[in-house]
Structure formats: C-alpha cells, structure tokens
Amino acid sequence: MMDIVYTIWLRNIKRYLRSKSRIVGSLGMPLFFLLVLGFGLNSIVEIHGSKQGYMDFIVPGIIAMTVMFTSVFSGIQVIWDKQFGFLKETLVAPVSRLEIMLGQTLGGATTAFIQGFIILVISIFIGSAHHTTISGFLIASVFMVLIGLSFTAFGIAIASKMEDMHGFQLIMNFVIFPIFGLSGALFPIDSLPRWLQSLTLVDPLTYGVEGIRYGLAGASVINPFMGFVVMAGFTLATVALGTILFRKTGI
Amino acid sequence: MIEVENLTKKFDDHVAVDNISFTIERGEIFGLLGPNGAGKTTTISMLATLLKPTSGTARVNGFDIMTHEDEVRKSIGIVFQDPSLDEELTAYENMDFHGRLYRIPGNVRQRRIADLLSLVELEDRKNSLVKTFSGGMRRRLEIARALLHEPKVFFLDEPTLGLDPQTRNHIWEYIERLNKEKEITIILTTHYMDEADRLCDRVAIIDRGRIIALDTPEKLKEGIGGDVVTLESRDIKGLYMQLSKSAWVEHIEPHDGFITLTLHNAERHIAEIVRLSATNGIDIDSISIHKPTLEDVFLRLTGRTIRAEEADIRDRMRMMHRLHHGR
Description:
The complex is a heterodimer.
Chain A: H1 2-18, H2 20-42, H3 54-76, H4 78-83, H5 86-91, H6 97-125, H7 134-161, H8 168-181, H9 194-202, H10 204-217, H11 224-248
Helix pairs in contact in A: 1-6, 2-3, 2-6, 3-6, 3-7, 3-10, 6-7, 6-11, 7-10, 7-11, 10-11
Chain B: E1 2-11, E2 14-24, E3 29-33, H1 40-47, E4 55-60, E5 63-64, H2 69-75, E6 76-79, H3 91-101, H4 106-119, H5 135-147, E7 153-157, H6 165-181, E8 185-190, H7 193-199, E9 202-207, E10 210-215, H8 217-222, E11 227-233, H9 236-243, E12 251-254, E13 258-263, H10 266-279, E14 284-290, H11 294-302, H12 310-325
Helix pairs in contact in B: 3-4, 3-5, 4-5
C-alpha cells in the first residue's frame, strides 16, 4: 500500500521541484497581498482589541491562502494527467484507486506546505512572527498540513468531475475565491455583522486560518482545539469524497 | 491466451462493440483491423480492464476480466493510442515509476530498465526529459515501459499512428522480435492494411463494432479470388452494364467514382476492357491492376474503403500535434 502511495508522491515532488517557474510564479500573488495589504494598511488599520499590527494579522491568512491555492491547483492537475494520457498509465496498473488518490493527496499537500513555508520564512524576514515559540510554529504547521491535505483532496474531487480545464475559471470564481474571501484571512471575523459571521463559520478555511494565527500570534478568535477538530473532520470528509469521485472517474 | 465471448459495449444508445467473440493462441500476433470508430480501442480497453463491458465476458491469460482485474493487469502490457508518458520526467524516471507501480524489486527493476532501454535504443537518452523526445522515441519508450513487468500479453493500440515510414519499420521490427524472442502474445489494432498484413498471424476485420471476417491475411486475400482491377470513370453505370456481361469477370462492384473487378490473369483482359469501353463510348480515366490487399477484402465486405476514413484521422493528428507543441 505505502510503496504505491510513495511512488505517486515521489512523482509529484519531482515534478514540483523541476518546475522552478511555477514555484516562483505561484508565490507572486501571496507576496503581492502580503506586501501591498500588509505595508499599505499597517499604519491605518488597527485590529480591535489587539496590539498587533495589520501586517502581523494577515500573515497567517496569506500563509493559509498560499497553501490552499497550491493544493487546489495540484489536485486539479489530475485533469492534465487525464488530458495528456498519463492517468491511463496509473489506472491500468494493478494498484487501487485509493492508493493513487492518497499518493496524489500527499504529494499535493507536501508541495503546498513547502509553498506556505516559504511565505512564512519571508514573513519572518519582513518582521513578522518574531515572538513565536517553537511549539507555536508546530501548531501552525499542523494546520498548514491539514489545509494542504483537505484542499488537494477537494481539488481531486473537482477534477474527477471535470472533463477538461474549461470549468476551471468557474470553480475559481465561485468556489475557491469565496472560500478564501470569507475565511477571515484578511479581516477579524469577530468584528463582522452577525449574518456575515455565520457565513465565515461554515467556511472550513476559517478554522485553518485561525489555527495558524493561534500558532504564530498566540491568540485567535476560534479555540484552536475546536479548529483542529473541524479541520481534521473536513480533511477526512474531502479525502473520502475525493476517493469516491476519483474511483468513478473514467479515462 | 485470450478468449472473448459475446463481448458488447454500449455507450448510451450507441453500440461501440457488438457481440464479438474470438480466441487468441499463445504466441500469436493478432490484429484488429478496421477504420477509426470501428470499436477496436473499446475492445482493447475492455480486455485491459479499463472499461466494463455492458455484457459478455473475456479471459486474459486465464483470468476473467470482470472478477480478476488485478491478475489481468499483471498479465498485460499496453501501449495506448494516445501518448501516456509524463513529459516532465526523464525516460528513466518514467520507467522507474512504472516498475514501482508494478512492485518490481529495486535491483531487478534497474537491470530490466537498462536492458529494455538498450533494446529500444534509448539508453543514451535515459536522463533526458521526455518532452525533448520525438514521436518515434516516445513510442519506443512506451513499448519498453509496457514490457518492464514482463507481461504475457501485449496490447498495442495503433502503435505506428502518426509516425514516419522509417520509424514505422523500426517499430515493426521490435514487435516481431518481441514476439519471437520473448514469445509474447501480441494484439495490435491498426487501420493500416500493410501493417496488419506484414505483422499479423491472424486478422479480425472489424467494422461498426462487429467482426466481419477473421482469418490469416493470406486466406482473407485469397477469398477475393483473383486479381483486382480498379477503373476510374465518370460513367460508372455504363461501364458496369458492359463489364458485368463478360464471363471472365469473377466479381464486379460499382462505387462512387470507381469500379472494382476481380478476375484471373487480369493482364490478359486489360485490352478487352479498354476495347469494350471504347466501342461503347465510355471514357476510362485510369486503370490499375494489383494483387488483392486487405483493403480489397474490407471493401468487398463493407462496400467502403478504409482510406475514406483517413482524412478524419489526419485532422485528429493535427489537433494532437497542436496540443503537444503549441502549449
């Protein structure tokens, strides 16, 4: 079982390490958010009831965003494998769909985690998360891994239902961006009107962002244990969904 | 080695494979010959467990394709019609990935990869990315990869589609060598008559999901009975009227813009054909005589040429080319 999962994981990592332009390219948007919003709004925005500046506030949000976007993209890459025929090579081998799915998920989550980690390191260099303890970094890492796993599996679930990349824009605009926008990555959720707040609370990414925020800043609106339970549950659910849909996907 | 019984595949209301049955012996090279869309790839996909049949069954290497998927998959190697390599990986890495998927132990894997890459003459390119490879090189790599787990049955779906004549010859030689040296049973699909004729021990001609003939290429061609004469003319009707009266014409069939005759010792009758049409004022645009080919067999059985379907294929090739190089 694990040998096959490892094989698929290894392929994903090799492809990732080989695509230098994609590594740099996909860091562009989060860096842009971090620098423009962080520095731009740092002096004029004050987070209610907190001493931290806006920059410190959005760093966890931007890390979560990086991990989420990278993982959704790598999940959706299954469509490329479908279109360029490589998927057939794995589907005709004497291995189960579950093994393929898990290998893809772990591969996507790993690359997404690395991307998020790069943003984290950059944030430290521009003066954020200086007071974070080792255990704080570990807590943040756990949430980054969970976001990576769940959203890669989510991407695979979407890819299993799509024939080609035509629907991609639709998914980005109506699923991925709303999940990011509603997550409290860019604003504190406790200052929102009640109706909007309940929307953010059904967004799984909120719990991921808040978990990373707890790890890096030592305080969050959502209790980190509850955040962990929700994210772990969401991860299990998406992996199950991804496995079921991927099992049904044809060539 | 392979037994197919009443295999049928329906997509919605379209019947892609219609109740076909055949048996393939160990060590045979068996060809599925027919135009695009005849159901060849669908048949192969079912035998390779990638598609579930609507009804009927088949056994590959003694294993039922419905109930023993994994055993079937271990017994077969397959080269798909469309490319199935990871272009971002090297030739070696593509092979290695395959070897790991089939759980071949490390040392055996490395040795076999080296052997197979030298068999297909790619050992000096083993560390190059596949995206730098030509079509022929990719095909050879796919063949080597599909052999890595030492399959008993080897499926080749249009192995030379889109390759230049020289590369095609090369691939044919590999296939023949594999069959002789490793005694692998080979099933290949093709719409190239010469390919089926040259390589296959037996050929099943498949059209619209059905097997319409199955025999050795020699027997199939003998069935035509004599030489084939093709006449092009604007007055097919007149020509048909005149020639069908002649006793020495074994078989005559009018088509769109041309007419085919089957007769013995065709060389001796050419003059008479020309005289007959001249006295009746019918212009003949061209005459050709040839020994029967599988194309003639197909034409006789279906009333259509496979060539007519090829324009279609050329369009697809152009599209594939664009997909791969225009990115």
